[in-house]
Amino acid sequence: xxxxxxxxxxLLARVLEDKQIEFDLVLGVPRGGVEVAEVxxxxxxxxxxxxxxxxxxxxSWDEFAxxxxxxxxxxxxxxxxxxxxxxxxxxIEKLAQKVKENIxxxxxxxxxxxxxxxxxxxxxxxxxxxxxxxxxxxAAVKYLQRQxxxxxxxxxxxxxxxxxxxxxxEVDELITLEVPEKFYAVSQFYQxxxxxEDREVMNILKxxxxxxx
Length: 213
Hints:
Blueprint (H helix, E strand, L loop, with lengths): L4 H14 L6 E4 L3 H13 L3 E3 L3 E4 L7 E5 L5 E3 L1 H6 L4 H23 L12 E4 L7 H13 L4 E7 L2 H8 L4 E6 L19 H12 L4
Parallel strand pairs: 1-2, 1-6, 6-7, 7-8
Antiparallel strand pairs: 3-4, 4-5
């Protein structure tokens, strides 16, 4: 059990240091992952930015993800979903376009006028506050693999066992503090899991863009 995201970030930073994990920059997954990522970026005095992949929700059930969209517009469709429900490809394309527009708007809001960090050739540490299914995080990893020939390292405080095993095959290294047998939601492993607002993400990134980690 973690007190909050900041404590989880400090614990992750120490593990990364002990394991001598090397990386060039930290990317946080908005919104909660950015709070964890900030602690790690500050600990290692390295650049910080964000990366987003968002789920495509089923038209009939908003909580059910049928796929995910990445910042470059690529769509990853869940194989499990394809076996369960039949959705016309034109509908998926329309839904994906709306998600892509949402990603564009949020990234613009987070960064303001600051351009994204050049990822080519960089070893990237991708950070979130926890992994439940891992599907959108997998989409983010696929996106990063298209942006750099460097290593992709994922670091999270806690992950479900299934997500952990699935992601192991996708990344160069996967660091997690806990992989519990009984996993219901990321929030159950935090005493304080208050929502992180867009304004907080904007302030964190602004601080780093001004060279004040």
